[in-house]
């Protein structure tokens, strides 16, 4: 049986050392944590394997670019007993961080709220966003970045969520993929630029 890419995940010990933001381009990785990127059978989002591999590709290209973007890892801290409770296995980041990359812990959907993220992202920076969850942290953080004046790019198939139970509509279920498409349409209407995985090879080059 094919193993999910993070079933053998080990804990990382991220560094908070900084590097200059030379390109005014930032890659923001939202809540890429074990609890949501495990296999669906272990509580991960339905598209966890595809999204994991796509973001792995994006991160590799960012790190190997001639002028790498500033890379910031956001980690959500849930409450005691939550899958992402601090220092629990599910709270850990799935991608090991490099020495010059940033790690910021947050408590709210909007990654700018209650954190020092705004200090790391100039208002004129181009912000490339990937991660979890489409209808919570991705939507809230994209909206906040637009409000600051940032150019915001969201990569299709590099963000994801869970199926949504429509409590006020008889308990029917909207599948995760439809929720993701709904959020993409909403954010595009608000001013977010949507790109496909086919655009990734040129994402961190001069354009």
Describe the structure.
The longest helix has 17 residues, at 48-64. The strands form 2 sheets. Strands 3-2-1-4-5-8 form a 6-stranded parallel sheet, sandwiched between helices. Mean pLDDT is 91; it is low at 8-18. Strand 4 (126-132), helix 4 and strand 5 (151-160) form a beta-alpha-beta unit. It has 5 helices and 8 strands. It is 27% helix and 21% strand. With 207 residues, it is an alpha/beta fold. The chain is globular and about 50 Å long. Helix 4 runs parallel beside helix 5. The termini are far apart.
Supply database-style keywords:
single chain; 207 residues; alpha/beta; two-stranded antiparallel sheet; 5 helices
Strand order of the largest sheet: 3-2-1-4-5-8
Approximate helicity band: 25-40%
Q: What characterizes the major β-sheet? A: 6 strands, parallel
Counted beta strands: 8
* Helix-strand sequence: EHHEEHEHEEEHE
Radius of gyration: 16 Å
DSSP helical segment count? 5
Structural class: alpha/beta
In terms of topology, how is this protein built?
Blueprint: E1 25-30, H1 34-37, H2 48-64, E2 70-76, E3 102-106, H3 117-120, E4 126-132, H4 134-148, E5 151-160, E6 164-166, E7 172-174, H5 176-190, E8 193-195
Parallel strand pairs: 1-2, 1-4, 2-3, 4-5, 5-8
Antiparallel strand pairs: 6-7
């Amino acid at each position: 049986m094919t193993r999910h890419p993070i079933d053998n995940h080990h804990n990382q010990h991220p560094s908070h050392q900084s590097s200059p933001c030379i390109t005014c381009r930032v890659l923001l990785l939202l809540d890429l944590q074990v609890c949501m990127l495990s296999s669906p059978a272990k509580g991960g989002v339905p598209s966890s394997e595809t999204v994991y591999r796509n973001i792995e590709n994006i991160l590799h290209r960012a790190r190997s670019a001639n002028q790498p973007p500033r890379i910031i890892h956001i980690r959500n801290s849930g409450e005691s007993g939550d899958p992402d409770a601090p220092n629990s296995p599910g709270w850990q980041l799935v991608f090991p961080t490099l020495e010059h990359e940033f790690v910021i812990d947050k408590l709210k959907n909007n990654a700018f709220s209650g954190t020092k993220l705004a200090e790391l992202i100039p208002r004129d920076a181009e912000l490339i966003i990937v991660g979890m969850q489409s209808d919570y942290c991705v939507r809230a953080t994209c909206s906040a970045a637009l409000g600051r004046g940032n150019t915001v790019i969201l990569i299709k198939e590099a963000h994801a969520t869970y199926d949504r139970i429509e409590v006020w509509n008889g308990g029917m279920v909207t599948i995760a993929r439809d929720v993701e498409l709904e959020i993409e349409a909403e954010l595009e209407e608000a001013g977010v630029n949507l790109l496909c995985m086919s655009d990734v090879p040129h994402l961190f080059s001069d354009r």
